[in-house]
Amino acid sequence: MIAATATYRRVMALSGPVLPVISFLGRLPTAMCQLGSLLLVARTSGSLATAGLVGGALAAGQTVGGPLLGRLADRHGQRTVVLAACWFDAFAVAALVAAALARAGTLPLALIGLLAGAAVPQIGPLARTRLVALAHRAGADDRLINTVLSFEGTLDETSFVLGPALVGLSATVAHPAAALALAALLLAVCGSAFALHPTATALHPRAEALHPTAGARGASAGAPPMTAARPSTTEVRPARARTPRAVHGMRASMALQGVIFGACQSGITALTERLHQPAQAGLVYAAMGVMSAVAGLSLALVPARITLPTRRRAAAVALVVLSVPLLFVRSLGALYPVVVVLGVAFAPHLITLFGLTERLVPAGRLAESMAFLTSAVVGGQALALAAAGRLAEAYGPSAAFAVAVGAAVLILPLALGAPARRRAAAPTPAAATPAGSGR
Whole-prediction pTM value? Predict the structure, then answer.
C-alpha cells in the first residue's frame, strides 16, 4: 500500500494538483447531460418517447463526434480544440435547456441534443493523453504509465457516479434544468481551465520526433526540449504506422462494456420499480461505480510481472463469472452484493484496454484512439439502454440482465484471441532512450 501511495504521488507530481481537479470537474457534464436531458425533456414534454429520442441523439452525437475531436486534438493541439468545443457545447446545452422549457418540438430538441453530444470536449480521453505524454517526458516506466491510466480511470468512474447523483438531487430539490445549467457552467469554466492549463502543450516524445515545432511548444510549457534525447528509428516508426488491427478488437470490447453498463442500468431500474423502491436504483448503480473506482485504484498494487494481456484476459473472465448471478437476483438484498462484486471487474477491464491501446497506437493518433474508446462505451451503453429497457418492460429485469451477461460472454473471445506477442515487438523500457516512450 505504501508503494502504491508513492506511485500515485509521482502521478500527481507530473502535472501538479490543479489539473486533476479541473479535469474531473470538466468531465462531470458528460455524466450529467445524458440523464439530465432525459429528465428535463420528460418533464417539459410529458413524453418518455421524446425524452428517449433526445437522449439517443445526444449519445449518437458523442459517439460520432468524440473520435473526430480527438483527431483534431492530435493534429492541432488540445488547447484550441478543447477551448472551442467546451464553449460550443456549453451554448448547445444551454440551448437545449431553453428549447425544452419553451416546449419546442421533438425534431428541434433532437437536433440540439445531437449537436450537444457531438461537441462534448472529450476532457477524459484528452486528460489521459496529456498525462501519458507528461509521464513519457519524465522517462516513466510501464508501471507508472499503468498507474496514470488507473488514476484517470478512477476519475472517470467517480464522475459517472457523482454526475447522475447531482442530476437527481437537482431534479428533486429544484428542476432538471438546474442540473443542465450547472453542466453548461462547468463546461465553460472548467473546460476553459483545462484547455488553458500549461500542460495543454505537452506532446508525446515520439510525436515530437515527427513534428519538431511541437517540441518548441512543449519546451515553452516547461517540458524538456526535444533535443534532450534523440529518438531512435524504432521509436519513430510506430508513429508513422497505421492503427494496428488489434486496436479494433479493443474498441469492440469497449462497446460491449458499454452494453453491460446500459443493460445493468435497465435491469436495476426495472427490478427496483418492480420492488416498489425506484429511488434505490441510483444508489445501487452508485455502489457499483464506487466499487469499480476502488478496484481501479488498486491496480497500482498489481505486480509488474503480470502483463496487460494477462490482465485483460483475467478481467474478461471475471466479467463473465461475476455477471451470471444477475440472472438470479430477485430482491434488493441480493441486488446490492451482486452488483457491488460485479463492479470489481469493470475498471480493471476498461483501464487495461486503455493501457494496451496506449502501447499499440501511433503517437500521432493517441488522443483520437482514447476518444474512440470512450465513445465506444457511450454508444454501447445507449444502444443497450434502448434494447434492454424494452426487454425488461416486456419480460422482466432478468431479460435486461441477460443482455449484460451476453455482452460479457462476447468480450471473452476478444480477450483470449488478442495477440500477446505484439507488445514484445516494441522497444522495451531498457532499450528506449530516457525521453522515449518506454514501449
Answer: 0.76
